[in-house]
Amino acid sequence: MKVDQTALKFNQASIILLLVLAFLLNAVWLVAFVAAVMVVGAVWPQAGLFKQLYARVLQPAGWLKPNVIDDDPKPHLFAQGLGGIFLVLSAAALWLGQPVVGWVLASVVIVLASINLFLGFCLGCFIYYQLGRIGIKPSLPSWQGGK
Q1: 10-residue block means of pLDDT along the chain (147 residues)?
Q2: E strand intervals along the chain
Q3: Distance between CA 8 and CA 39 in Å, rounded?
Q4: Backbone φ, ψ for residue 74 (5° rounding)
Q5: Is 98 in a helix, a strand, or coil?
Q6: What is the pTM of this model?
């Protein structure tokens, strides 16, 4: 299977940028938007908004170049799903008047996406592989075929 590392990095950078902006503007709707983008992209990989923006605009325009490597996309999709769940909980906490809980949850996603973007360590991928070691293989039907 193949994974475009540039697409992953663009996804991570988009998440970080939008969540920092959400914090600075105190925009709960933006946290909810990023949560939705992440969950949709994890459940239906080809429908991911950031992936579509990269593939349909940035790559054809020559602004970003693909870096396709042999890799399994499932751990990355699992990690994205976990991040999306954290952001769903973040948005819910913010809407329910719990700003400390909400922004801490969003900050966890920002920090982990930053570690992945800048240091190349994906905690969600690590969790995915550790679950596999004990016989739990997270997967969705839409993850088949490496898309």
Answers
A1: 96 98 98 98 95 96 97 96 98 98 98 98 97 94 71
A2: 2-4, 68-70
A3: 15
A4: -60, -45
A5: coil
A6: 0.94
